[in-house]
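User: Hey, quick favor. My workstation is busy. Could you predict this chain's structure for me?
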Amino acid sequence: MIYNLIALLLNFVLGFLMISDKLFWAIGIIPLIGVLGMTLKFKKFSKLTIMVLLVAIFFGLIGIVQGFTPHYFYIIMNFSALFAILFESLKKVFFAVISWGLNAFAIGYLVTELREDMTMGIIIGIIIFIISFRDIVPTMLESKNKEKEK
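Assistant: No problem, here it is.
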């Protein structure tokens, strides 16, 4: 749980420093408040949430170095983190699909903006979404096994 809180704090502070338009930063804070609430309520450690929050900051910093303002990227990745913590807490596959879909869209968007090549961004987004099935399928199988046991 402490790692979730550290990742949230880093995302909050570095997001404030990265995002020049504070309206976008304020919108990006909304899902972070939800992640904080879910973390404190369920007291769960979520590797996926930490990964999404740190990727948002790391890739956002890379975007700034390349001359890209990561406003939308920051917001989308923070919503992805919110759905990731909902997935970890409630074990609903629907939340995992939304989280990974937003993650794939955001990184595809970042690649498109940095490379100015829509095709490459779409390909990267699709690859990331396909990789997400490694996380989604075991949860689906686990929930089906629980249903069969009842």
